[in-house]
Amino acid sequence: MKKFTKILALALVAIMSLVVFVACAPNADPVKAEAALKENGYKVINLPVLLGFKDVDCVVTGSLLVEGEGDEEDKLEHVTIVYFETEEAAEAAWEKMQDYAAEEDEDSKDSDWTIKLSGAMIYYGTSAAIKAAR
After folding, report:
1. What does DSSP assign to residue 68?
2. Contact between residue 122 and residue 84 where contact means Cβ atoms under 8 Å apart
């Protein structure tokens, strides 16, 4: 009985870890991610392909200018989500996408800018924009 309880507890921990990991990513459905961004006030563009990358299904990008309060500067929240046809295609493009995203973010001084690979999608941008795409 104790062995069963330990196995059950470990299984629950693994499942909860997976749920937490997946909850950080934008929506896996491009239409739902686009709708979520629009609902949160973002200007959204849904491109059918991204030139230079094989097996890309579509690209969803969203941006929102947040006005600073008082002496704070305005801040641009942005996210780009590249949806690939397969997980293997996303993994194959991972290094190239990291370089591409770094070039796109060259002028930005955002401390919360990130790039991640999640299943068949690669996304990068600010944390607020990534959360808005859920």
Report:
1. P
2. yes
The single residue listed with the structure tokens 């796109």 is: 104
Confidence check: pLDDT of 54 > 80: no
Rounded-to-integer distance, Cα 19 and Cα 125, Å = 21
- The 3-state DSSP class for residue 71 equals coil
36-72 burial code (b ≥16 CB/10 A, e <16)? bbeebebebebeeebeebeebbbbbbbbbeeeeeeee
Specify burial of residue 26 (Cβ count, 10 A radius: 0-12, 13-18, 19+). buried
Q: Which residues pair with 60 in a beta bridge?
A: 46, 81
Task: State the Cα–Cα distance between residues 118 and 26, nearest whole angstrom.
Answer: 9
More confident position, 112 or 40: 40
pTM: 0.74
Question: Cβ(63)–Cβ(76) under 8 Å?
Answer: yes
Three-point CA angle 122, 133, 56, nearest 5°: 35
| Strands (DSSP E) found in the chain | 43-47, 56-66, 75-84, 113-118, 121-126
Q: What is the DSSP letter of 21?
A: H
Tell me the domain boundaries of the chain. 25-132
